[in-house]
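We both want to read discrete structure tokens more fluently, so let's practise on a single case. Once you have written the record down, we can walk along the chain together.
***
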Amino acid sequence: MLAASRFEEPPLDCPRCPRLVAFRHGLQGEYPDWKNAPVRSFGDLDARLLIVGLAPGMRGANRTGRPFTGDYAGDLLYSTLLKYGFAQGTYKADPNDGLRLVDARIANAVRCLPPENKPLPVEFTQCRPFLQAEIAVMPALKVIVALGKGAHDQVLRALTVRPARSYPFIHGRLHALPTGLMLADSYHCSRYNTNTGRLTTEMFHQVFEGVRKALK
């Protein structure tokens, strides 16, 4: 376990998950201009809002090195953060675009790209200490937004909230957790979810309207 009193991002050559290491090394040879490394969180540790995704996307964060940057999910997420005052600047799908987060931070439950975007249970376990330590050093944290059921489940595990069945994943639900934090659920802002109509822009905006009200 990482010490709860400090937070260090995983090293760029993190060895914790052999399957992810092998996948990362293969991509480093195939795409040498990509980051192909554990993706660091984005935003300040003194933020009141933490947004948690499941894992980096191959052509998004794994390529650019910034969470949700360079793929469709980032287009919807960052435009929403800009709309509700959680970001300033212009999002150009480039980590050097100058965009900055305001009172918000973005992290992933698993920091490395998994094959087929599906982390294994052991990989969640190996990476969980990073999320736990990160939350522990966010003194102003009040609300966590989970993007998808996988992220929802991992947040509850990171917070050691039991029984988890008392806090089911429901899009748009804002859970009051026994830790004192609020957990807001949203379907993941992926192209698949938006193309199939499972998640509309309006539905996604409503989640962040609720978050903004909770932070007043």
In short: Strands lie at 42-43, 49-53, 87-88, 100-101, 104-108, 143-147, 174-176, 182-186. The radius of gyration is 16 Å.
